[in-house]
Specification:
The protein has three helices and no strands. The protein has one domain. It has helices at residues 2-10, 13-18, 21-84. By secondary structure, it is mainly alpha-helical. Residues 1-22 are annotated as: Disordered.
Length: 99
């Protein structure tokens, strides 16, 4: 009852003149329900956006790792091509150093 009284006190005098108190309260209750639904939808959208940001961060990490791997394989390929063209030699230790 106090909430209804507060709504009535906070409404403008024009609203009081054109609507009955009960109509005004019902209208304000509908507005409140609409705002609650908007808040719920907004929170749901925020949750989806947070999930998408996390997904993109994971993709960013995966792509960075892939770029590093590709760069590593390019270097291996270059070295292999040089070895095959007799431009480089593979250094192989003659002794096993685990002793």
């Amino acid at each position: 009852m106090e909430a209804r009284q507060s709504i009535l006190e906070n409404s403008s005098t024009e609203d009081n003149e054109s609507f009955s108190a009960e109509q005004l309260v019902k209208h304000k209750e509908k507005e409140l329900q609409t705002l609650v639904k908007i808040k719920e939808y907004t929170q749901e959208i925020l949750g989806q956006l947070k999930f998408r940001v996390q997904t993109f961060e994971k993709y960013d990490t995966i792509l960075a790792d892939a770029v590093e791997t590709i760069a590593h394989w390019k270097e291996i390929s270059r070295c292999s091509a040089n070895i095959l063209a007799d431009k480089e030699y593979v250094k192989v230790p003659l002794e096993d150093k685990k002793q």
